[in-house]
Amino acid sequence: MRVAVLGSTGSIGTSTLDVIAASAGRFEPWLLAARRSVATLLDQAHRFRPAWVVVGDPRAAADVGAGALPAGTRLAVGPEALDELVADPAVDRVVSAIVGAAGLRSTWAALEAGKTVALANKETLVTAGPLVTRLASRTGGAIVPVDSEHSAIHQALAAGAPDEVARLVLTASGGPFRGRPRESLATVTPEEALRHPTWSMGPKITIDSATMMNKALELVEARWLFGVPADKLAVLIHPQSIVHSLVEFIDGSVVAQLSPPDMRLPIQYALSYPRRIPGPARRLDFAQAFTLEFEPPDLDRFPALRLGHEAAGRGGTAGCVLNAANEEAVGRFLGGSLRFTDIADVCARVLDAHPFQADPGLDDVLRLDAWAREEVRAWN
Ligand code: NDP
Ligand code: MG
Q1: Which ranges of 113-202 does DSSP label H, i.e. alpha helix?
Q2: Is the pLDDT reported for residue 380 higher than 90?
Q3: How many CB atoms lie within 10 A of CB 195?
Q4: Which protein residues have a CB closer than 5 Å to ligand 2 (ion)?
Q5: N or C: which end of the chain has fewer CB within 10 A?
Q6: Tell me, what's the pLDDT at 179?
Q7: For 68-94, how does the pLDDT look when each residue is reduced to its tens digit (9 = 90+)?
Q8: How does residue 356 score in pLDDT terms, banded at 50, 70 and 90?
Q9: Residue 267 near ligand 1, beta carbon < 6 Å
Q10: What's the pTM?
Q11: Percent of the chain that is helix, strand, coil (3-state, to 5)
Q12: What domains are defined for the chain?
């Protein structure tokens, strides 16, 4: 199976290449794409010999010297080239692992071409969920989730029929500040927030985990991915990150998926689906005693979660505005010009103030994305 790996130099991208390397030739990377990490991309190209390497940023592409690529690998530059290549008939599956709203257009191009997308880029569904799912059903494209919670739900849903589902329960580790009082959160530094207790991930999603905005975005993601109303979505704190999510059926039975926190498993599941195959992900060791804890989330300490429930409930442009405001706010927090607790505050204000549309087109979504970013940049 020929795979296009979008965001190959990132955390999900490199885990994807681990899965591919362990697959004994079942998966073969046909295209590797990143924005500007040219040195890493060239290393990957020599190791995996893809047909194409795509560099998003034209200035960075200038660093690819003549003869730097292995024989048989070609270079393409910029987002238009990437849109065209993901639609190539040679591509069997697309791993969408570019971070942020920047991942939307290539995911869109892949679905428009009827591809099956292993979707890590949750921002695609948060920003344009109704449009993306409509597009996929028109073209025959499909989305298999990579996000561990949604992968778990995808797996657990196989235990019943759609009309037998009572609730989808997303687990959350609670991040590094689970036990901290709200007052002490204002002074959190980027270094503290970047230290996640159970998962090793890129910087943006690590901050989102600390604010619990990640779970907020995942509620919106789940709403569109599984087509369930917001009142059937719940969040449960589970510090060990072993139960990746649960589905409660109408008879009260709860079905969950368990495995150690290792993204290689949901990535591989999204590549091999509908089959399962052996792979490199860590396994639970039942010879060792271990404990699983669960507790309800504290919405006062983590107000971002409320915003997730709100955005999932309202639908329309709410997800897009929440996502864009958050992306910009995280950037400002990492740059030192916003406090940790300001992230959820500024997102709440921008969400409240935005001109809501219930059934937006792609243009509306892109316009509001830009508007929300501008609002956060100007906020002080
Ligand atoms: P990283 O920051 O580690 O990696 C991001 C990747 O995207 C890099 O390869 C980067 O290239 C590339 N990229 C960024 N912008 C562009 C662009 N404009 N054009 C082309 N490539 C671009 O992120 P993660 O791997 O952590 O996350 C990726 C996605 O997966 C996010 O949407 C995240 O929410 C989601 N996700 C991640 C999880 C995880 O465990 N990490 C878990 C669940 C979901 P370069 O190196 O050149 O900048
Ligand atoms: Mg997740």
Answers
A1: 122-139, 148-156, 182-185, 190-193
A2: no
A3: 10
A4: 147-149
A5: C
A6: 87
A7: 999 999 999 999 999 999 999 999 999
A8: very high
A9: no
A10: 0.96
A11: 45, 15, 40
A12: 2-145 (3.40.50.720), 150-378 (1.10.1740.10)
